[in-house]
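Section 5.1 Outputs to date
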Amino acid sequence: VISPLILIPGIIYFGTALVIYTYQFTYMHAHKYETGGNIWLRLFQCSIVSVCSSHVALAAVFVAQGSPKLAFLLVPLAIGTYAYGQLLISQHHSPNQDMSIAAAIRVDHTCAALEETLSQKTPFDAEMYVHPVVQTPLPSRQHSRAADRHPPA
């Protein structure tokens, strides 16, 4: 008897909470810190370590089950994962250290505005560009007819 009655207030409460919390998290809560792009690096390092740890744990399970061959097959996978992670970290470490995400966003917006301004000033004109094949003069009809009559030997 109480199940149908509680359904209506539950829908009202959770529907209102969804709207309010979405608004609060989206527009009202301001972050007190800016990591400057370092959060990606830290999360990626943790992800690589956890994936390599899971490879080692799976190898231990294989050894415990009596399949050391399968465990040895996982060793190159763990080494490759770690090496690939280090490669990506070395590629992305310097840009993340030198420029904050906010600065990168500002640069992107500036470049987009500049491209939009340039595209408005100089619209594409079909007569400005001529394909190189079209620029070469076509052989006259007399030359082509003579070539048809006297093919090269």
